[in-house]
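Thread: Newbie trying to understand structure tokens

Hi all, I'm a second-year student working on a class project, and my supervisor (Dr. K.) asked me to get a predicted structure for one chain before our next meeting. I've only ever worked with sequences, so writing a 3D structure as a token string is new to me. If someone could post the tokens and maybe explain what I'm looking at, I'd be very grateful. Here's the chain:
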Amino acid sequence: MKAVTWQGKRNVSVENVPDPTIQEPTDAIIRVTSTAICGSDLHLYEVLGPFMNKGDVLGHEPMGIVEEVGAGVTNLKVGDRVVVPFNISCGYCFMCKRGLQSQCETTQVHSAGSGCAIYGYSELYGSVPGGQAAFLRVPFADYGPVKVGSELPDERYLYLSDILPTAWQGVQYADVPEGGVLAVYGLGPVGQFAARIGKYLGHRVIGVEPVAERREMAKRHGVETIDFSKDTAEELRSMTGGRGPDSIVDAAGMEAHGSPVGAFAQHAVGILPDKLAQKVMETGGTDRLSALHSAIDAVRRGGTVSLSGVYGGTASPMPLLTMFDKQLQFRMGQCNVRRWTDELLPIVEEPSDPLGVTDLMTHEVSIDEAPAAYKNFQKKTDGTIKVVLKPQGLTV
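---
Reply by user tm_fold:
Sure, no problem. This is what the structure looks like when written as tokens:
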């Protein structure tokens, strides 16, 4: 089958790889009809190469049709249409039963000290073959996949695999008070949804983003927007009575703009041998922190900062004096996708499309065009905000 594979820093290619097979009675095989490039895939493309192996199959935002089920699968049958959450979780362990599926104790990657396994996401998360491929093996198929209807197009459902529940969790963690103001740093796909969710829940929302096309998309959904600059925190205070927003979602993460020290560290890691680079990332400060530090500066005293953007450094410098003095709260972590999908499924099926799930995709391309799509997404060129790949061809 065709699959998008990692070949090196800023180098992905479409290769023929073996079709997946049932390995456990609880597995299913999915024929992937749509799969997306996630912002966090760019971390593999740019930063997390030391934890990748040449030929790794990428992707963790797939949906499709069940082709085969293991003998132990009772909740799915061949022909079911499903969305596959990016976390691989069992549904029955201590963590899953508490809505912390990203910490699933059955699939935790103990060798890396990480949470649950993730499709297509490096040694840190189990080196599981990903979903940017024609077919995908899905473990714990009775629990993970979300069955969806057959009438609506894939793009109504696809984002339930990751970015929509990630944004929903980010806003829930932000704990915006009634009548409060939510700022969202970074208006990529997760930030777009976080901003729209904030509006859907009745909050005033201000998006912070340096790319004009992304600000324009957010404005279509009633979001106030500003550019990102050294004066962002002061501008946010001026828009909120001098106090700052009540809550901030940082949807930018480790590759935020305007972080020369972090950019240098990431470049340095990228030219080291893998084992040495891994050690540096495990012990050093390799994140671009401009967005997070700005958020800490901008949020009002007693406010909440919610991290949805991915960070990868262990010793990233943080302004603890300011954080303590302002009495800030922080929530963060990989999304617990299955905690939120039952709540989100009826919303994405509403005829009015209140979260605008049909107004996010900017590029729909065949899987063969994935290398160019990665490049455009990483460089934010050609108006790229969200790319959907079609492994079975554009007519599916």
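A couple of things are worth pointing out once you decode it. Confidence is low (pLDDT under 50) at residues 256-272. The radius of gyration is 20 Å. Feel free to ask follow-ups in this thread.
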